[in-house]
Amino acid sequence: MPLLRFTTQLQGKVFTNKPFPFENFWLTIPGVEDMIHSWWKNMPSSPDRVRNIALKLRLLRAKLRSWNRIKIGNIITQKIDLLQRIDRLDEEEEKRNLNAFELEERSALKENLEILLTQEKTLWKQRAKAQWLSNGDRNTKFFHV
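-> structure tokens emitted (145 positions)
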């Protein structure tokens, strides 16, 4: 049984604690490293060093999950929303000339989309690497026969 993954049975239900995935794209968000450092520094500590690190990691994991859910959300959903908003402005531009505010808004939306696409690329690259590490190269026998 892996150290980070364990199951417990409670009232006929099985609950699984999944390993915590640190998303590499979080590091592309301005100020996130300072935020994590501040959280780590201000967490309660224990006199026992091993317990201290375990406690801080558990608390940091909870804070990062909450922060991700509240501040970041789902990248795919955000991307779809940005694309729809840009499309609406593009369609409106086909009917009439956009005013300065709308042109500025579309420009900002496109900049945000570029940032989001970079973050999404990092996310999928990390997931693909994790998948390959866990599954390995399944086609090795096929190509080497």
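The chain has five helices and two strands.
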